[in-house]
Design goal:
By secondary structure, the chain is of the alpha+beta class. 17% of the residues lie in helices and 36% in strands. An 8-stranded antiparallel beta barrel has the order 1-3-4-5-6-7-8-9. It is globular and about 70 Å long.
């Protein structure tokens, strides 16, 4: 009888611990501040490469799926003269902003490097590095 009770307790604890892990589906790897460090604009022949930029433009991602920037989210501008906001989806690896309707920005995340992929005819990307 003790064996059956112990087995039942182990099963219940396993189910409870699995349920807690399943509820936390988002690791939110984007949360924090990211600084613009490089941009890529291809001239149309596939020869484009990332070039260093001197910019104070940041993206700030929150836990709630929102982001803000001290610059335009919709383009590769290095300027910080306009603030903008938006939302992001880790599931779809996309960013949307009310400032750029009808344009979804895709992103790639590799460790502490975030690359925004803009909807251009030729390759155009912005590379950000994690600040915090």
């Amino acid at each position: 009888m003790k064996t059956k009770i112990l087995a039942l307790a182990v099963i219940i604890l396993t189910v409870i611990s699995c349920s807690k892990n399943d509820d936390d589906t988002s690791s939110n790897l984007l949360k924090g501040t990211w600084k613009l460090t490089e941009v890529l604009a291809d001239p149309g022949d596939g020869s484009g490469t990332f070039n260093l930029v001197n910019s104070n433009k940041n993206l700030i991602f929150s836990n709630s799926g929102n982001l803000s920037s001290n610059g335009a989210i919709c383009d590769m501008s290095i300027e910080t003269n306009v603030s903008s906001t938006g939302t992001y989806s880790e599931v779809n690896a996309t960013i949307n902003s009310t400032n750029c309707p009808n344009n979804t920005i895709k992103y790639e995340l590799n460790g502490n490097t975030l690359i925004l992929i803009y909807p251009c005819i030729e390759a155009c990307k912005a590379k950000y590095t994690r600040v915090q």
